[in-house]
Amino acid sequence: MDCMCCVEFLKEEGNASVSQQENGFVDSLSILNSEKAVQEIIQQPLIQGIEDNLIEFSEAMRTVAKALRRAAEGKASAQAEAAEWKRKYELERARNLQLEHKVLSSGESIGECNGERTGNSADEPVLSNQTHEQSDVCCGKNGICSHEVLRDGDTDSNFDVVQNKVMRKISLKWQTRPQTVLILTKPNSASVRVLCAEMVRWLKEKKKLNIVVEPRVRVELLTDSSYYSFVQTWQDDKEILLLHMKVDLVITLGGDGTVLWAASMFKGPVPPIVPFSLGSLGFMTPFRILTSVTIETPTCTHLVAFDNFSRSKGDPQHYSDSEHYREYLDSILRGPISITLRHRLLCHVIREEAKNEYEAEESIIVLNEVTIDRGISSFLTNLECYCDNSFVTCVQGDGLILSTTSGSTAYSLAAGGSMVHPQVPGILFTPICPHSLSFRPLILPEHVTLRVQVPFNSRSHAWASFDGKDRKRLAPGDALVCSMAPWPVPTACQVNSTSDFLRSIHDGLHWNLRKIQSFDGPRDP
Ligand SMILES: NC(=O)c1ccc[n+]([C@@H]2O[C@H](COP(=O)([O-])OP(=O)(O)OC[C@H]3O[C@@H](n4cnc5c(N)ncnc54)[C@H](O)[C@@H]3O)[C@@H](O)[C@H]2O)c1
Ligand SMILES: Nc1ncnc2c1ncn2[C@@H]1O[C@H](COP(=O)(O)OP(=O)(O)OP(=O)(O)O)[C@@H](O)[C@H]1O
């Protein structure tokens, strides 16, 4: 405004001189005086004001510039971090796709199984729809890809077209007789030990199968008798990685924990698992053979859980069974096997300090769930959760469970999550004791990638555990990334997937058990 005033003033002065000329009244002294006056006016008070204003203005501009610079720096680092996470997601996706592609291209795809494989002449189980059985639909070298299995007997390789046709019942057919069985047992159980020895003998003598057991079990068997020297085992853990090439069928003797143990041994393709129930609950162990009897040994008396087992006269440590398990195994070895295809979660821990070494920590695969909790810390967990890069929520409470649908009846159930049929593909997002009234559990689709991050301003560390094992500390800045694993676990059904599931929630949890209301009472007219 001051500058404008100045210009107006000069214009007026100019006009005055012109009118004087027009009047023929030119006085050079007065002109000189006027100019001097103008100069004085311009230079003195106005210039001083402009300078003050300019100084103020430039200071303000400097402050704004500083703030903008800070904002830009913050934005750049946020963008860099976002780009880093995006890169990690893409890497992980690419890895999963590559693994899937490997399975498909190595002849493990639909219609490509020819029943031959490395290291074992036994044929692979063939996947088929119970309503439309198809011998050309095959899981290949023990590789049962979830996507393939979900196809409705369609051999079209266009995955997108056929993916929505979900099969109701899935069964496996042997192309030729299975040859090698891996038996996994719950440790420290007298009943399991007895049953294992009996089963090994029967499978070898009657079924002519090769038997593989864990090193511990082989020692136990050989301690009982040198007869068991034919039983195979492995020397070091590297051999476990190759087990899927050698083994046609896995038998578990124990509870759900033994099924989790068996699944954890196979990071990639999993042979069909036949879970015998020798635990107390057994949601994933539909083959039941136990009640309780007393076993007397020379030193003590054990009360053990056994159904249909009776002790032979004269030998306190020898037991014969009612051939119950033999019937089950006979039917399994004949096939087809009705199976529940249990999805698993692939988990990566990403350390803040190892941002550029994505491969540094080995991935962990879980059948039930991965739990992120506060461990021994007494502070609330503070977990930032993202689903495919979209912010989901911040979990403040005891922790969070990311569960498979198989795991929905385990820890997630105890934390208030829904029970979900194991054949439903999805990831359960269940908080543990959230300190909020409105935090309901979620079920997310199976294709998402979840990231749970411990924020930098978290008061404490968090702890991740995998199927209740392998606890890992997550420091502020660390994250856990989790997505559906490419290899599910096929577990044999006693009847079928739905019937077994319903039986386990009825028998195991007494789900919705209530006395039926009698007819005897008030009723609608
Ligand atoms: N508060 C809880 O309910 C709680 C706490 C910790 C762990 N767990 C569960 O225990 C599992 C580890 O099992 P474990 O046998 O090695 O440990 P464990 O010996 O401590 O047994 C845990 C119990 O969970 C049951 N269980 C396991 N998987 C199940 C499933 N899918 N459906 C229904 N019940 C199931 C088992 O039968 C067993 O009774 C974890 O994956 C977790 O789900 C539950
Ligand atoms: N082969 C194995 N080697 C080492 N540990 C095992 C093995 N099988 C099972 N376990 C572990 O032993 C524990 C108990 O196993 P499991 O749940 O099968 O029996 P359980 O506790 O008697 O069953 P339930 O919980 O139904 O009563 C679990 O923590 C499991 O991880």
Please outline the helices and strands:
Blueprint: H1 2-22, H2 28-108, E1 125-129, H3 146-149, H4 159-162, E2 170-174, E3 180-185, H5 190-205, E4 210-213, H6 215-224, H7 237-240, H8 243-246, E5 249-254, H9 256-264, E6 273-277, E7 287-288, E8 292-296, E9 301-305, E10 309-311, E11 319-321, H10 324-334, E12 337-342, E13 345-350, E14 364-366, E15 369-373, E16 381-387, E17 390-403, H11 411-414, E18 427-434, E19 442-444, E20 450-453, E21 462-466, E22 469-474, E23 479-484, E24 489-492, H12 497-509
Parallel strand pairs: 3-4, 3-5, 5-6, 6-7
Antiparallel strand pairs: 1-2, 2-12, 8-9, 10-11, 12-24, 13-14, 13-23, 15-17, 15-21, 16-17, 16-20, 17-18, 18-19, 20-23, 21-22
The protein binds nicotinamide-adenine-dinucleotide and adenosine-5'-triphosphate.
**Distinct ligands, ions and cofactors found in the model:** nicotinamide-adenine-dinucleotide, adenosine-5'-triphosphate
Find the count of extended strands (DSSP E, 2+ residues): 24
CA-based shape = elongated
Average pLDDT, rounded to a whole number, is 77
What is the CATH top level name of the largest domain? Alpha Beta
CATH superfamily of the largest domain: Probable inorganic polyphosphate/atp-NAD kinase, domain 1
Poorly predicted runs: 1-28, 106-124, 129-166, 303-322
CATH architecture of the largest domain: 3-Layer(aba) Sandwich
Domains (count): 2
| Strand content bin | 15-25%
The oligomeric status of these chains comes to single chain
Q: What is the first-to-last residue Cα distance?
A: 90 Å
